[in-house]
Amino acid sequence: MRVVIAGAGSVGRSIARELLGHGHEVTLIDRQPSAMRVAQVADADWLLADACELPTLREVRADEADVFVAATGDDKANLVISLLAKTEFGVPRTVARVNNPKNEWLFDEAWGVDVAVSTPRIMTAMVEEAVAVGDLVRIFTFHQSRADILELTLPEDSPLVGVRVGQIEWPVDTVLACIVRDTRPIAPSPDDTLEGRDELLLVTGRDADEKALETLLTRGQASS
């Protein structure tokens, strides 16, 4: 996979190292000479230029990229870069960093963003997940489909403890994707039984009823 990353700061370099470690081809762009720490990611291609300008994107062959990552510390730049990558070069997948959560609403398909990553929001979700039992926590939202990844740690007094997954009537547009028990992830089958303190990862569509889901997981389902 060929990935172009705009923004060679600590975030961009970290992403590049991870991708290179998985065998992908990576190009890093930054307009600040101080960001050109080539030795830290020596296997990447580097370009000192402004990713908000079309000649720069032509030079890195953005039209041949599978993914374009806008990872600068400037939300306005990340929006412009995503829009140019998507509309001018037809990049199949764009990922944009959101620095200020107040700007998150802008990062959608209208600006060419397929996936928006808000570090403050993710950290907030992780804090909530660490302390909350019995509360649904939104971990991630896919901006194109509006599907959500939700997490809930099943209370030990939940009526669903001891119930097989196949017996549970999940709300519409809700899928149990994974059970994390202790440190072990489990792909749930209909015969798996839920246990107290199980960490449940669920995927919900835009029409899902989160209140009904939380009620089901903490109070059980009404008998038919």
Question: What features would you highlight for this structure?
Answer:
single chain, 224 residues, alpha/beta, six-stranded parallel β-sheet, five-stranded antiparallel β-sheet, 5 helices, 11 strands
How are the secondary structure elements laid out?
Elements: E1 2-6, H1 10-21, E2 25-30, E3 45-48, H2 54-59, E4 67-70, H3 75-87, E5 93-98, E6 115-118, H4 119-131, E7 137-141, E8 148-153, E9 174-181, E10 184-186, E11 199-204, H5 210-219
Report the major sheet: 6 strands, parallel
Assign the structural class, choosing from mainly alpha, mainly beta, alpha/beta, alpha+beta, or little secondary structure: alpha/beta
Overall mean confidence score, pLDDT: 88
- First and last CA, distance: 50 Å
> How big is the Rg?
21 Å
Question: How many β strands by DSSP?
Answer: 11
Parts with pLDDT < 50 across at least 5 consecutive residues:
none
Strand order in space, largest sheet? 3-2-1-4-5-6
Choose one word for the global shape.
Answer: elongated
Give the fraction of residues assigned to helices: 10-25%
Strand content is 25-35%
Helix and strand element order: EHEEHEHEEHEEEEEH
